[in-house]
Amino acid sequence: MSVFADACGYGLNDSIDNRTITMKATSLFLLSMLLIFFSSPAQAAEAHQPNIVFILVDDLGWSDLHCYGHRYHHTPHLDRLASEGLRFTAGYSPAPICSAARASILTGKTVGRLGFEFVTKNTPGRQSLDIDVPLLTPELTLNLPTAEVTIAERLAAVGYQTAFFGKWHVSQHYQRRYLAWHPDFGPKQQGFAVAGEDFGDHPYAWDKKHPPSPAPGGVFPRDSMIQRTADFIRRQADATKPYFLMASSFYVHTPVKTRCRWLVEKYERHLPPDAKHRRQRLEYAAFVETLDHHVGTIMDAIDQSGQRENTLVFFMSDNGGHPEYCANAPLRGSKWNLYEGGIRIPMIARWPGKIDAGVTSDTPVIGYDLSPTFVSLAGGDARGVDGIDMQRVLREPSWKPDRHLLWHFPYYHPEKTFSKAIDKIGVDDFTTSKTRPQSALRKGNYKLIHFAEDDRVELYDVAADISEANDLSQSHAEIAAQLRETLQQQLDAMNARRAVAWE
């Protein structure tokens, strides 16, 4: 009774009878419950909603950062982010290729359920390869349907400001301009109230006939996409609403051409003379450090806004590293295939006071977990997705839910030069290999890959054998059979599209 009385502003020693106190307190209590029940989710969650800054980068390999063990890449800002937060050692992309991964991250659904498993194109149709192949792949998906509910839409429903800057790549290239946002399927049609199409200082923005001049020594060129991002953050210093910002970097995607020649000269002194693909890797190292500088600019803007303590920063790559530039070792494979080099990626989370500083987690986390995690911590509705709410692992890095992760890639790659690509997929090949239709499932430490052409599987213990060198499908035949059955059942339940034999 005293709780109700105190809630009303009355104390038991006030000159009012207990029955009156009880009636008024009970009435107020019931009214407050009704207000909570009928109020919007945004009003109910407003008091504890953090800002969320999601930094998605392009083609950054799992071992590309110094904090992930790279021997000579200089990445002080991302290293600091990791030292101030949680670094995932088993973070995964939902797909080994751009568009599919981004569609999955945005919606919280697997690519198999979305039917968006490859990269978007200018026009509809099917893959066109330079040689005949055994299987017919699904028709190309050009746009993420606006009927799909994105992270931005879910967060806007609970009172968030939403903003997007950078690479979209889940709509067909508008008017055949590479990566140009389609006006019917762009960020503003998917829940982002603020959105700016801007290539920044990435070579995508350069005039091929008249590229910009090299930057002065020690100077990083101004990147307009990053500046827009930082300006938005600084403007939130006195905002009354929380915000969700997605900064989708074009780095370190090809073409790997840098204006920072001084950085290339710097890495000339660090990279051994006999290193494989030395010239490409020098340019790439400069690209990685430029990306790190951009992340530092964003982090500085958060500090300048005074919102550091109330901002969750989440950083990840959209898929593994490009094989012609990135040494993905110790991981096997690269972008485009489902070995670890194609899907295991750097992933870091920082939230001062909520996430312990300088910790690591080997809990498998995948990009389609972000939607339910972000939305749940904001007090919103995270139902209808394939991912799970991973807030607990942010608090308890050793926590491991009983679940599986799933990937599906029913296509061939590379399309125009498939006949020339190498057949074997190894470690640090530094060349593009043949990727054939395949699917994969990880449960616990075991990962199964199913190859559709010959209905073959491979099984690896990726905790003990991170390079996927020892196929256990014969010695652990029962585990392989169980995971294979689970994989096929899941794909069937999702109505996943398959590569099929030609009629």
UniProtKB/TrEMBL annotation:
Top-level taxonomic group = Bacteria
**UniProtKB keywords:** Calcium, Hydrolase, Metal-binding, Signal
Cofactor names: Ca(2+)
* Keyword Metal-binding attached: yes
Transmembrane spans: none
UniProt-listed SUPFAM superfamilies: Alkaline phosphatase-like
Looking up CDD domains in the UniProt record yields: ARS_like
| Signal peptide boundaries | 1-44
**Where would I find the Sulfatase N-terminal domain in this sequence?**
50-379
Which Pfam families has this protein been placed in? Answer: Sulfatase
Tell me the protein's name: Arylsulfatase
Source species, please? Rosistilla oblonga
